[in-house]
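Incident log, entry 3
Record: histidine kinase (386 residues)
Problem: checksum mismatch between cached and fresh output.
Input:
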Amino acid sequence: MFLFEGLDHLAAMIDSIEQGGSDARDVSETKEQLEALTGKKDASKSETVKSSNGGTMKQQNDAQTHFLKLEDYEKAYMKQALDQNLKVYELQVTLNKDCVLKAARAYMIANALEEEGSILATRPATEAIEKEEFDQKLVYLAAVECEGQKLKQKIEAISEIAAVDVSSISEIEEQRAPQQSQKEQTESTEKKRNQTSRASATSAKKPVAVAKTLRVNLDRIDQLMNLFEELMIDRGRLERIASDNHHSDLSDTVEKIKRVTNQMQETLLNLRMEPIEQVFNRFPRLVRSLSKELNKKVNFVVKGGDTELDRTVIEELGDPLMHMIRNSMDHGIESPALREAKGKNPEGTLTLAAYYNGNQVIVEIKDDGAGINREKVLAKAIEKTW
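Fresh output:
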């Protein structure tokens, strides 16, 4: 399995280079797993190193690894934050080994950090986190105004968190600076210059259209929407003035404003829209885990992942859908033996679907199990009521 992960890393690096990007990629976890498997654990992480004065000190490699792999734009964000007198921290978060919804936990961690400031970088990348393409370790680079201890406490308050390590950028740089000689710095600079030259040459030979993105706080979009609503009110007043005064030039201008504002409204609404698949993608692993736990065979079918919803709604859908899927697995779909006794396929089918119905979006969970036990539900309702 680890060899396949290594092949995936190599393929991703090649794709990135072919598109004019960087070959930087975090392979530390795969490396550690392979070393543990072969019994050749990296001595630099298990031994102590003699210091110049005869004492010993532990290697700081774990805390420094990710800063060596920051992309240029991430370094620019970090420098800008430091110039604004913000505090920049690296947070290494380890999830519990039995954590089921890792993407959901990662989202909660990101929310906690964004309440205090902004996230400058993540390892692995956001796309990999949403697809749960990582083990238990997450690394965040955050710029905030508060102390690192507060960030640590906020993240530790989230369930299924095994460990949180917080390091200040300034502290890491102070530890690393004496360890790097002038010669090493020169070699590092020369190597970076050569890499930049090669990347520039590659880009010149094969220009690639790179998607431009900007991280925007949702509060700003809400504020923009409020201002737009005021603009729409004023547009209505202009329409009435033009109509009451029978002013043709003003009417033409108002008509143009109307077309532009309609386009603005559509654009603003689309800014908040995201495909629902980012929530749906969390559940295949949950279903597989529950299938093994409950000894049930389940074919999990997902439909309509490209259906778009407001991001705020998507954020609230995760937990309710998880509970409904659990209920379907626990109480709806029968065991293989019971299904065969009823003449059914021993493998049950659980369908999670989203689709448009007019101006509404319907999210549906359906299974071919035993259905709702009316008598049992009625008895429970009476018990709770009386």
